[in-house]
Amino acid sequence: MERLILIRYGEIFLKGKNRSFFENLLKDNIKNALGSLAGEVYKIPGRMIVSKYEKCNEHQIINILKSQAGIYSVSPAVMIDTDKEEIYKKAVELLAEDEGTFKVKVNRADKSFAPSSMEFARLVGGKILASIPSLKVDVKTPEHVLEIDIRENGKTMIFTKIIKCMGGMPVGSSGKGLLLLSGGIDSPVAGYMMAKRGTKLYALHFHSFPYTSELARLKVEELSKKIAMYNAGDLEVYMCSVTRLQEAINKYANEAYNVTLLRRGMFTVAERLSKELGFSMIITGESLGQVASQTIESMSVVSNVVKEIPIIRPLVAFDKQETIEIAKAIDTFDISIRPYEDCCTVFVPDNPVTKPRLYSVMKEEEKFDFKTIVDEAYSTIEKVIIKADR
Ligand code: ATP
Ligand code: MG
């Protein structure tokens, strides 16, 4: 007998000729995310299997599979030789502790196996009823379903549990995206949502060391460990200092435009990095109207610096509460609410512009050598590779 985990994938099925591309991607992501925890990940028709692992790691492996986009559900299963007596024995063993109602479902990939699926399900059901008095049959709404999958290779898989996973598309199937990652609640959620749709994430964080502390950086690294779980096991994080830029803006520009100018600098750096490294989109956690810098006018003058790639804002129409619920579900909320200073909270004006006009913003930038200082910020970028937090 061998323990294994059966993986079902959802939408990949819809992809016709591309199906094997999506399947291979999912397989590679699973291998990368599991690392040395499992010895084998392989395809069978329409499904995938994880095997050759220590039983004590099964729970952890299932948790990792739950955070791989593209997986619809998983079932821990046992694989035995296709032998009727063995199957009866195992079926009874798997339901021995249960009570209530049950049903047996048989699937024969091996059509040479007799009797028919229906008949065999009835036979197995009879054995269970005879051995476990606390169980009754209910074919319509059973509390327990025992599934028997008789495969072509002389092996049979048996399982009772179906664990729902995150769905979506395998990471890497929908481009590479540069996530602007702050230490707040929103941006990790925005990243998660794009990973779920198949975008491979890379992150860019702006800091104003020494105005922002080492703790703020650690917080971003902690968040990155969580995001890495949804990004097939790791996340490349680019750290960029905007200290000099903020000092210059603070010194030369009209205070009301501080945040607008800083954000234009940030997006300029983001597009340049994206072009250099081949990312196809910039992702942010902005939500319409949330703060002065997220009015449609502010977003427009900031977006204006990005010329060649789309800016994706998955949370644009979300209420904060909706974002918070996802942040809790993906386990980033508790990290995000730790107190810290973000570069956006240093030098914040009392009365920021809420409806900046492009013309006025550009006038502010002409007061000093904005472009050169943004280039300097770009040259401070350092890369850190963060591994998933298991
Ligand atoms: P968050 O909760 O994600 O910090 P927020 O509601 O605090 O968002 P802002 O601070 O205005 O909003 O930031 C809007 C978006 O700009 C963030 O979601 C993030 O994508 C990006 N951003 C803000 N600060 C930074 C930073 N220091 N480094 C990288 N990106 C940032
Ligand atoms: Mg923020």
Q: Could you name the key traits of this structure?
A:
alpha/beta, 13 helices, 15 strands, 38% helix, elongated, binds adenosine-5'-triphosphate
Description:
The structure is a single chain. By secondary structure, the chain is of the alpha/beta class. The longest helix has 20 residues, at 258-277. Helix 3 packs across helix 4 (117-131). It has 13 helices and 15 strands. The strands form 2 sheets. Strands 1, 2, 3, 4, 5, 6, 7, 8 and 9 form a 9-stranded mixed beta sheet that branches. It starts with a strand and ends with a strand. Bound molecules: adenosine-5'-triphosphate (ATP) and magnesium ion. Adenosine-5'-triphosphate binds at residues 180-182, 184-187, 204-206, 284-286, 290-291, 293-294, 342-344.
